[in-house]
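Translate sequence into structure tokens.
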Amino acid sequence: MQALLDGDGISIVYDGECPFCSNYVYLMRLKDAVGPVHLIDARERPELVAEARQQGFDPDMGMLVAYNSRIYAGGEAMTLLSLMATRSGVLNRSFAWMFSSKRRSEIIYPALRLGRSIALKLLGRTKLGG
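Result follows.
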């Protein structure tokens, strides 16, 4: 995780086998001010998943974002990304509205996480933990 924190721009660790996670990170249009955007499929980097777990983060509970020397997880990561994204497009505006409020984020994010779990099960895919 330290390597992510030392890098420039923003790093997003997501589940590449989750159709929601994959589509979300590719559809988000982050503002140019963020700098380089590094998309990291957690399934291709098991050492990052293990290190995240050692540091108290569970990548199965949501994506991780490293930005400005800090790790954001789950709903907090979604909030950060939504606020940094451009407002072009219905999807980006919708996510910005949903996650611009901490209270809305606390309500919405668990439902999204449940949807992810159901989708992975229906698709026959395992969680990151195996």
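Note: The chain has a mean pLDDT of 82.
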